[in-house]
Sequence to fold (316 residues):
Amino acid sequence: MLKYVVKRILWILPVMIGASFLVFALLNASPGDPARIHTGSDATEADIEKFRQDHGLDKPFIVQYCDYIYKVFTKGDLGNSYRSNTPVAGRIAQTFPVTLKLTLFSMVIMLLTGIPLGILSALRQYSLLDGIVSFLGMIGVSMPNFWLALQLILIFSFHLGWLPASGSQDMRYFILPAVTAGIAGMATIMRTTRSAILEVYRQDYIKTAEAKGQKESVIIWRHMLKNASLPIITVISASFCGSLANSTVVETVFSMPGMCKLLVDSIVSLDNIVVMGAIMVLAVTCCIVNLVTDLVFAAIDPRIKSQFKRRQVKGS
Fold:
């Protein structure tokens, strides 16, 4: 098991290199010259050339990338912002907690609504409740985040005045953004839970438990949900990473000072070094989530544990 964990941790390295190289190449090929933009319209050619030299933009593409990766892995240096000349790591450290809070709050909404509704829909298959839940699930999956965010702002901020429309000062500021980010993931988790429960519900051991007279709550939580947990955990992991990605839209609409809002602003202003730093942090976060998901699989499913044991026996 320890060997597997170490192997998965080492796999984070090539994932980060692949993601960073792809983003670095796209930013390098994108139109616009960061040196001309960030030196201003009154800058001379000498000023622009000095800016390129100071930030290494006068070097070939592959040299720029290797220098960047070397500093990241040896010194933990993500560089300095082109626009503000402040360390990128410091700006990410200030903004990433907002994005992480938003993602965690949206995950709470997804789990507290998606799993119970999926279970109820499966247990009452083809009923009116099942039809309503399935209809709401399709709406949640297909609804654009930016449109939902604008509607929530109009209703709860502009007309009712119950909740703020922008900022991140306290918990009240996270309610509307978390609901916006959580709706699509909630619908996906609900549909996956329904399908997994229906598949387990047809198994013989469920009928045996019912024949023994066990309570419905015991059958649901001990037998159904436990044996249907693997696909549910998989979609929860994917929803977490998807919620991180959706934060770009949510933070922009609600003007939240998060890392994804910083990422969008940096793309617009061609502050490529900040874009690279934010992408690296997002890639590492998703890799950690996937690693935790695999460890949870191994803890829940005895078949996965037995595979580890067989591999260890063969290796010895």
About this structure: The chain is about 80% helix and 0% strand.
